[in-house]
Structures are given as C-alpha cells and as structure tokens.
Amino acid sequence: MTYSLSYISDSKGKHTAIQMPMKDWKKVEQRLRETEFLSNLRSSVSEAMEEVKLHRQGKKKLKTLEELLAED
Questions:
Q1: What are phi and psi of 28, to 5 degrees?
Q2: Phi, then psi, of 7 in degrees rounded to 5
Q3: Which of 2, 10, 12, 39 lies 20 to 30 Å from 57 when distance is taken between CA atoms?
Q4: CA distances from residue 7 to 13, 23, 50 in whole angstroms, order as listed
Q5: Which secondary-structure segment (H or E) carries 62?
Q6: How far apart are CA 5 and CA 20, in angstroms?
Q7: Is 4 within 8 Å of 21 (Cβ atoms)?
Q8: What is the tens place of the pLDDT at every residue in 32-68?
Q9: DSSP-derived pairing of the beta strands 15-19 and 6-9
Q10: Are 17 and 8 in contact (CB under 8 A)?
C-alpha cells in the first residue's frame, strides 16, 4: 500500500515529522487496529492452550463457564 507522504525536516535536514492525507491516515489506523486485534487474539489463544496443557498434566484446574463469565 502506498501513501502520499510529506516529510518535515529541522534546520539540519533531519526528518522530524510526516504529513499525510486524512484518507491515508484512516487506512493506517484501521490496519493498526486489525493488527492489534489479531495480536491479542493470538496471545489469548496461546494462553488458553497453555492452560489446557497444564490441566491435562494435572497442574491446573480449569474455570467453569460461570466463573469465566463472572470475570471483569
């Protein structure tokens, strides 16, 4: 995906900021939200699989559905 970017530089020529059209920024924001959601989902699934593994080894008691639903 290509974006129309304008770079802002200081007096030494070092880039200090970027400007982009709002329509491009909205696309970037959406991709960030999707990436964060997928990352959180992967993490949650990994944690759940580890809990199941520990349960099968007799090292962890799993929560009931009622206990899970009652959590914050």
A1: -60, -45
A2: -95, 140
A3: 39
A4: 10, 17, 45
A5: none
A6: 5
A7: yes
A8: 999 999 999 999 999 999 999 999 999 999 889 999 8
A9: antiparallel
A10: yes
Length of the chain: 72
**Which pair of structure tokens corresponds to residue 29?**
């924001």
> Average pLDDT, stretch 10-33?
95
Given a contact cutoff of 8 angstroms between Cβ atoms, the answer to whether 15 and 8 are in contact is: yes
Which amino acid, residue 68? L
Tokens of residue 36, six digits = 């964060």
Mark 24-46 as b/e (b = at least 16 C-beta within 10 Å). eeeeeeeeeeeeeeeeeeeeeee
Distance CA 58, CA 40 (A): 27
pLDDT-based confidence at residue 1 (cuts at 50, 70, 90): confident
**What's residue 36's pLDDT?**
96
